[in-house]
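Let us work through a complete example step by step.
Step 1: write down the sequence.
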Amino acid sequence: MADDEFDAVDLARRIVRSATTAALGTLTADGGPFVSFVTVATDVDGAPIVLLSALAAHSRNLGRDDRASLMMQAPAGEGDDPLTGARATVVGRLRRVGRDDLGHDGLMARFLSRHPKAEGYAGFGDFSLYRMAVDGVHLVAGFGRIARLSADEILEPPVAG
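Step 2: predict the structure and record it as tokens.
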């Protein structure tokens, strides 16, 4: 696709759906930034889901303030400058999905299909799924290829029926 045919929505969706890891940004108790590394999958509509331990600082941060961001990057070619790779920062609220909540088992199945090794600890009592209520996405896809996208543009609408 030529630069003049840049499809920001398609590229952002592909990055979010294909990413297996992300930088998770949360807010500390004093409102400062905190970034950690997490594994990520997506719900059917494309909303990010993560599996987090309650022992981790980011989980404590989310317990106080669920505002968060997930920065995901398309894989760069070997030897490429990583700053030239396309990346999407998804912003919103990461909300814990309790084991008894409707949809939990489906989300867990989706997460474990992306990260089968997590099955060894996913059932531990301190681990919980979090699903992002997406506010929007900031896409950087190279020089002059930057877009701000709404949740409606990124998430797939539910299938009727």
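Step 3: interpret the result. The chain has one domain: 3-153.
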